[in-house]
Design goal:
Helix 3 packs across helix 10 and helix 12 packs antiparallel against helix 14. The protein has two domains: 152 residues, no CATH class; 338 residues, Rossmann fold (3-Layer(aba) Sandwich). The strands form six sheets. The protein has a five-stranded parallel sheet with strand order 7-8-11-6-12, sandwiched between helices. It has a three-stranded mixed sheet with strand order 5-14-13. By secondary structure, it is α/β, with parallel strands linked by helices.
Amino acid sequence: MTDESPEEFLARAGIREVPPPPNAKKLNGGADDAAERWHGNGSGSAKHESAPSTSSVSFVSALGTPFPGGEWREPKPLSDGLSPVPAFEPDYLPAAIRPWAADIAERMQCPLDFVGTPAIVSLGAAVGRRICVRPQRETDWTEAPNLWGIIVGRPGAMKSPAMTEALRPLNRIEAQARESGQEAARKFEAAKELHHLKLADAREKARKQLKDGSEAPTVGIDAAPTPPARRRLIVNDTSYEALGEILAENPNGVLAVRDELVSLLRSLDREEFAAARGFFLSAWNGTSGYTFDRVIRGVTHIDAACVSMIGTTQPGRMADYIRRASKENDDGMIQRFGVLSWPDASPDWKNVDRWPDSNARERAWATFERLTSLDPDSVDAQSDKFDALRFLRLDPTAQAAFDEWRGNLEKSVRTGDLGPALESHLSKYRKLVPSLALINHLADDGVGPIREASLLRALAAAEYFEAHARRAYGAALNAEAPAAKAILARIRKGELRDGFNAREIYRAAWSGLSDRETVLGALEMLEDAGWLAARIEKTPGRDRVSYLINPWAIR
């Protein structure tokens, strides 16, 4: 408790004690009795702790209007709207990178979730379309291990630095490729210049033959040199047409990295970016071809658009986007982010100042290096004459475990018990689980059919991701809870006074309170819980709604 008196408490929010209006029913002994309970024996000393926690209070607003319900009661507490989630376990990761990821998390004092999530996605991007998985014994159902992931955390939670560390192996490989590519580019420029000289010489010889009466000059010349393909593993900010050209040169796919991922998704929601949105939806599959037909650029064909994606966002932005997407863009874009992590913030912290574990780092980085240049023959990958993609299947014990899991999944998404958005999200685990199993198998030097241990690790990780997905979709349904708490905070700071209206809030554009619908929903939640009371004033036009503040809100 502060040393502030009850009068100062109430004045700060524009609330005062007034006598009840004439002929009004006395409430719990009236205002005098309420003041007696606050001050205690009329001594003038503030004894807040003596106020019963379940009492009713007869305070009325600064407008002189009593609470419409007759008395202010202690309001109900607001939940944070988040369901409980498990922490990320090291065993969800392949053994080859497990110590490295744990070392990063310990040194940065951040949740392992912030390292493990992008590490899994980047492993899948390293494999790309080089090797795929066929989750059934005999069908040609094929999944590429490119995955989409998103990390949700508050500003300053270390999610972006942790993601950067997890992506360093791929960035290093691309930097090395860029250096070797510069040498290849220099050789190409020299070869192109030589070709131009030969072409000029051949044209001169052809002219002389034509002057001499030859109808068919016999001068020949080699074909023009082909520019070297630029090896790319990561893209950050690019148009989808430029991304298509990058994929044409890198058929195994690339990893798209965005620090604030929801900003990209919101831009793709706009009507003028409908074509880009369609491209990204196709690129999630990793196995479908795509052709760009442009008047200026001509035709660009991609054998298979394969894009992995990883990024970060904040809790409020995530919940708000899911809520909007469920109403406006029901095409499964957000549901494709199967590798979704929204961990709890840990109150524990210690200063860790030591060198990285060099052995763990070398082993992990060597794993990424090996996967980016993996020869399908070295792992006994299969092929068939109807598909150019090489693939692995599950061994018998892994197949039995997968079939049992899938049977349960198919039942759960067909019962109608889940909300449509969550149902769509979980249905995409048909790709997630076999992809995780393939990543585990290849990262830990697996050869031949995928073993049961790799699949069981994938199933454990999928259970973790499902819990975090349920938190995200649940927060979207209860998106007003954080906004309601933010409004209470503004009231306690004195920035909202008794008799305020909704427009004052969303026009102030405070963090998390700039959206009109969110603000209205939050005010309704506060009213239902008893923190506020709506005061409706009849006018010739629309009714004017203002809000009275329960004195308990500033206690």
